[in-house]
């Protein structure tokens, strides 16, 4: 993996080898270290790294998903758990990482690919890879901010101040784009090589990933457009979603050239601040959850979480994240097998054709999370007997278990808590907001560079506030 990462990403910065030697005099005007056209594969690798690293980043300067779901607490500086999203400009930083560093590279890769020498089938698959990854990032942006620049974005020669598109309209278009790109893929042909740092060119896996994004989109529509939701979810499952941990969308780090963002923020930076919250510790304790042993250290022989939103006692007084999360080589698992199973269980609970009953799919979901975290089969069986599916209150049953299973999977976890309203998250007493966050406010830079459009978007959604719900978060 180390060599692949170095070849694919470092090669963008040291790219002399990408430029053919030329003997004509015109070559004297060319800078071999900064070629005018980068290979699309390098641009893909950069976009995959940037999007994965910053979707998964626990830094207080970025998305703060882990605080929105109240699973991490802060000890020394509790401003972020008190929902201060202004001082560190988290909205600006996440917005820019997704648009400038991720989507922009994919858009440029699509343009460059058109002029690269490939067979028709390989070019089609490479274009499909870029398209699916782009859709994934758009989904992140909509589920983080709501209405965002979409149809007029990335047209600098035509439009300098793009409008903000309606979030549901974007959702519908993303679903159409998924259907179109899946239909175009040539499964038996190759895709990208070393630059595909997730699936290594396996187009069948990219198809499963695309259908899993579609499943996410469909479930999120359940309370606002049940008919479209049902059709979308059933179509995604029938088309083939992530079916094992081997299919999961994981960006793997070599621990040398590139390290896991949790490692970078907790270990490499020597930050003695982040601890598991008492909310997650107490919930898992009450359920006798065996994953605690894998995830957390003990203090004084017990698991003890930090008080969310409060200035806590010394770091040494609380449980810490175990080495399971603190390794430099831990992958960013951004769409996991466990998440897909919980989405399918929810689909069955809502009456959709999901490939099984809610009871069975709930058990499969819990089991897949346990196995992902190395829990023994006998222990899993005991846990399921003690914590069975509750059909009467399925939102609580699935919601709490998904919230636990999605620990350290920020956006996925936030989607479940917003959609199912379980577990109940209480706004901390010293919060800067009137409730827990339901969205990320818009970037402050947009008010300077794209003022008319961002103000119109803010007015349309009911105010550019973290407490304004997304269109699909109906209840």
From TrEMBL:
<feature type="signal peptide">
    <location>
        <begin position="1"/>
        <end position="22"/>
    </location>
</feature>
<dbReference type="InterPro" id="IPR011990">
    <property type="entry name" value="TPR-like_helical_dom_sf"/>
</dbReference>
<keyword id="KW-0449">Lipoprotein</keyword>
<keyword id="KW-0732">Signal</keyword>
<protein>
    <submittedName>
        <fullName>Susd and RagB outer membrane lipoprotein</fullName>
    </submittedName>
</protein>
<dbReference type="Pfam" id="PF12771">
    <property type="entry name" value="SusD-like_2"/>
</dbReference>
<dbReference type="InterPro" id="IPR041662">
    <property type="entry name" value="SusD-like_2"/>
</dbReference>
């Amino acid at each position: 993996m180390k060599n692949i990462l170095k070849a694919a990403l470092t090669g963008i910065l040291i790219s002399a080898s990408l430029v053919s030697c030329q003997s004509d005099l015109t070559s004297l005007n060319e800078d071999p270290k900064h070629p005018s056209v980068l290979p699309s594969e390098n641009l893909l690798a950069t976009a995959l790294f940037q999007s994965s690293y910053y979707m998964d980043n626990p830094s207080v300067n970025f998305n703060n998903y882990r605080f929105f779901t109240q699973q991490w607490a802060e000890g020394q500086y509790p401003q972020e758990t008190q929902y201060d999203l202004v001082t560190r400009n988290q909205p600006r930083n996440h917005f820019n990482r997704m648009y400038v560093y991720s989507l922009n590279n994919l858009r440029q890769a699509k343009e460059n690919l058109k002029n690269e020498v490939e067979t028709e089938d390989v070019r089609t698959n490479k274009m499909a890879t870029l398209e699916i990854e782009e859709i994934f990032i758009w989904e992140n942006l909509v589920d983080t901010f709501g209405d965002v620049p979409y149809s007029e974005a990335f047209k600098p020669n035509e439009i300098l101040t793009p409008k903000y598109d309606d979030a549901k309209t974007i959702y519908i278009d993303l679903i159409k784009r998924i259907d179109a790109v899946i239909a175009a893929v040539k499964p038996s042909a190759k895709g990208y090589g070393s630059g595909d740092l997730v699936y290594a060119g396996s187009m069948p896996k990219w198809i499963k990933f695309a259908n899993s994004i579609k499943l996410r989109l469909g479930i999120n529509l359940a309370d606002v457009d049940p008919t479209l939701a049902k059709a979308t979810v059933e179509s995604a499952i029938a088309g083939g979603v992530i079916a094992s941990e081997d299919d999961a969308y994981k960006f793997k780090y070599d621990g040398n050239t590139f390290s896991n963002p949790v490692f970078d923020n907790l270990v490499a930076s020597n930050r003695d601040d982040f601890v598991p919250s008492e909310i997650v510790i107490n919930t898992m304790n009450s359920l006798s959850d065996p994953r605690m042993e894998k995830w957390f250290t003990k203090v004084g022989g017990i698991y003890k979480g930090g008080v969310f939103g409060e200035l806590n006692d010394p770091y040494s007084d609380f449980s810490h994240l175990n080495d399971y999360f603190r390794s430099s080589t831990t992958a960013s698992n951004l769409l996991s097998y466990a998440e897909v199973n919980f989405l399918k269980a929810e689909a069955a609970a809502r009456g959709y054709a999901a490939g099984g009953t809610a009871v069975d799919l709930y058990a499969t979901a819990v089991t897949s999370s346990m196995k992902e975290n190395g829990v023994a089969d006998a222990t899993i069986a005991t846990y399921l007997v003690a914590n069975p599916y509750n059909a009467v209150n399925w939102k609580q049953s699935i919601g709490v278990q998904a919230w636990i299973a999605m620990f350290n999977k920020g956006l996925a976890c936030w989607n479940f808590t917003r959609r199912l309203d379980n577990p109940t998250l209480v706004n901390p007493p010293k919060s800067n907001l009137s409730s827990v966050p339901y969205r990320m406010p818009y970037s402050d830079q947009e008010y300077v560079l794209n003022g008319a459009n961002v103000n119109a978007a803010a007015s349309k959604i009911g105010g550019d506030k973290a407490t304004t719900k997304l269109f699909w978060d109906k209840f």
